[in-house]
Specification:
This is Hydrogenase assembly protein HypC. The chain has two helices and five strands, in the order βββββαα. By secondary structure, it is an alpha+beta fold. The chain has a single domain, classed as Roll (SH3 type barrels), CATH 2.30.30. It has a five-stranded antiparallel sheet, with helices on both faces. The longest helix is centred in the last third of the chain and has 15 residues. The chain starts with a strand and ends with a helix.
Length: 90
Amino acid sequence: MCVAFPGKVIEIDGEYGKVDFGNGTIRDNILLSLVDAKIGDYVLVHAGYAIQIVDEVEARKSIEIWNEMTNQLPEEKKKQDFNEIVGGES
């Protein structure tokens, strides 16, 4: 099973982009070439790859569900789980 996390594309440089996942979490070098994403689009990211474009409402619902599922976890565990899904820190 593949788990992906939604984020908003805020910069594009060639095939790569900078994606804002909210709460001050921004990742550089997300590969965007698998989807036709533009600045302002929300994308699902797995292991450093944008794998699908999603609308903002669905992205926000997914983020809300993630927050509900992880609200009892220690911050370090939340960060570790998020990094495993998205593809590490930049």
